[in-house]
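Final report, Chapter 2: Outcomes

The project's central promise was a pipeline that accepts a single protein chain and returns its three-dimensional structure in a standardized token representation, suitable for archiving and comparison. That pipeline is now operational. To close this chapter, we reproduce one record exactly as it appears in the project archive, with the input sequence first and the structure output second.
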Amino acid sequence: MSVGLPEPGPDPLIDAVLSASRALVAIAARSLGDVADEVTLSQYRALVVLASRGPQRVAPLAEALGVTASTATRMCDRLVRKGLIVRRHEREDRRQVRLSLASDGRRLVDAVTLRRRQEIASLLAVIPSEQRLDLIDALTRLAMAAGEVPEQSWSSGWDL
């Protein structure tokens, strides 16, 4: 125990978010079970970033994933070999490469997302309708604070 620093007290909000996050992590793990032989969790996250934010260069993708550019490059090399993403040279500067989802990558993300949506829908069915708007507001704010792009902004797909 540090001298001069008070012990953190119980925070019901933090405890509630931790409990909810455990439930959502379990759903995420189950939804990836069918594709575990195709991609790792980190690779799937890269696919989701490309799906939600659109085609981009390695540096912004690495930043969004919280990894170094060299780590992102190696990850993308594997995803290109698997046919899940595509590299395209920019017309203005052929040295610049833009990464985007391949159609198989889009199908994989859509399949995992559908499975998650189904499990989440069954969980939400027990929430009374009069409490749902408050839950929508709170979870939207939490996702925005984490830097997530709203689902409706990308779930319909990108023209590649």
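Archive annotation: The domain at 12-141 is CATH 1.10.10.10 (Arc Repressor Mutant, subunit A).
This record, like all others produced under the grant, will remain available to the consortium after the project formally closes.
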